[in-house]
Amino acid sequence: MSAMKKPTIVIQYPFIALYRIPVFSKLSSSEKFTYTFWSGKASPDRYLKSSFNSSDINIVELPLKVLKIPFTNKAFEFQFSSIKQLIDSRPDVYIILGNPNSLTTWFSIITARALGCTALSWSHGFLFNEKGIKGFIRKLFYKLSHGHLLYGNNAKNIMLKKGFSNEELDVIYNSLDYSTQSKLREINTLEERNNIRDKYDFDRNGIVLISIGRLMSKLKIEQVIEALSIANKCQNTYLIIVGDGPDKDNLMRLALELELKDKVIFYGECHDEKELSLLYNASDISIVMGKVGLSAMHSLAYGVPMITNNSMYKHFPEIEAIIENKTGWYFKEDDIEDFVSKLHKIEYKGDIYHNCIQTIEDHYTPDKQVYFIEQAIKKHLHL
């Protein structure tokens, strides 16, 4: 096969989020396939950092336009230049982010198929057994593709029950920059852990929680702050909040009202992995009251278990990495008393630190993700 021309693979995203760079870079160095990435230059969301210029990734710009529907939270994305790019390039495999709210995606998949390309959708798939008109439209949309690259096994199981074949469905999981994270994790020390705790005047033997993400209502961070006012009656408990967003002022006001100024640290937005590694090193447990997504990957990569709510169908696929008493714990959704009770009853059974790391290394690294993606491509190309 080395003497033959390598099959061409196009991966189209509306924009390239920073966390996608490690896996895209590894794909670009593939010995099996030639990858090109089609993308807009920047994220329309100022809180979501993106990257367009990367020396080891072949990126072609597809201008991204977003139409927001007034008085609603709905927005539709457009990248119609992808149609011309498809006609001109005719890749062997066309992979597109499977978003049914992108009108372009419908037309692009149909065009790719008409041109004889293998069309694959990279998506969450079904997060739950969605029914009604929305479920019907989503199923119709997913039926357009030859196959699906899914983030988790739950989506695969749901889609199997909805009539998709096993051959159409490949779980590729998700990943962050694990190479950098693992190196930082190994050099962080107990002294640095204590330095961070001392810096913020935390009890070295207290419980330190960490929450990372955009400060918006769906993360329900106000519930963590309310829980702290209860938890501190029994044991010194602290919260480090990393991120920025529209709810920041309200959350700061709540911390003051509950007299938790010295227990809650608003660290601010941070994309420096070294700084984040030190914060995780100083923490005992990461907390997500709302939806778990990539935060699970980040936390477990540093050996930090996660506690979150038990409404599994509301989470993103990365929730599958959180296993009770192995890599984390669950409490009843929106039940602050149950959360506090769980927090006080937590026992570190076995080696949770190593359980967390092993879970990431088994499925959630760029190396693993590249392997799963290329296995799927080879299957569809009958290689």
Descriptive account of the structure:
41% of the residues are buried. The chain has helices at 21-28, 81-89, 103-114, 132-142, 153-161, 178-187, 190-199, 221-231, 248-257, 273-281, 294-301, 336-345, 352-363, 366-380; strands at 8-12, 34-39, 59-61, 65-68, 75-78, 93-97, 118-123, 147-150, 169-171, 207-212, 237-242, 264-268, 285-288, 306-309, 328-331. 38% of the residues lie in helices and 18% in strands. It folds into 2 domains: 8-175 and 365-380, Rossmann fold (3-Layer(aba) Sandwich); 178-363, Rossmann fold (3-Layer(aba) Sandwich), CATH 3.40.50. α1 (21-28) crosses α14. It is globular, with a radius of gyration of 22 Å. With 383 residues, the protein is of the alpha/beta class. The mean pLDDT is 92. β7 (118-123), α4 (132-142) and β8 (147-150) form a beta-alpha-beta unit. It has 14 helices and 15 strands.
Give a brief outline of the structure.
The chain is 38% helix and 18% strand. The protein contains 14 helices and 15 strands.
Pick out its properties.
383 residues; alpha/beta; Rossmann fold; 2 domains; seven-stranded parallel sheet; six-stranded parallel sheet; 14 helices; 18% strand
List the helices and strands and how they pair.
Elements: E1 8-12, H1 21-28, E2 34-39, E3 59-61, E4 65-68, E5 75-78, H2 81-89, E6 93-97, H3 103-114, E7 118-123, H4 132-142, E8 147-150, H5 153-161, E9 169-171, H6 178-187, H7 190-199, E10 207-212, H8 221-231, E11 237-242, H9 248-257, E12 264-268, H10 273-281, E13 285-288, H11 294-301, E14 306-309, E15 328-331, H12 336-345, H13 352-363, H14 366-380
Parallel strand pairs: 1-2, 1-6, 2-3, 6-7, 7-8, 8-9, 10-11, 10-13, 11-12, 13-14, 14-15
Antiparallel strand pairs: 4-5
Helix pairs in contact: 1-14, 2-3, 6-10, 8-12, 11-13
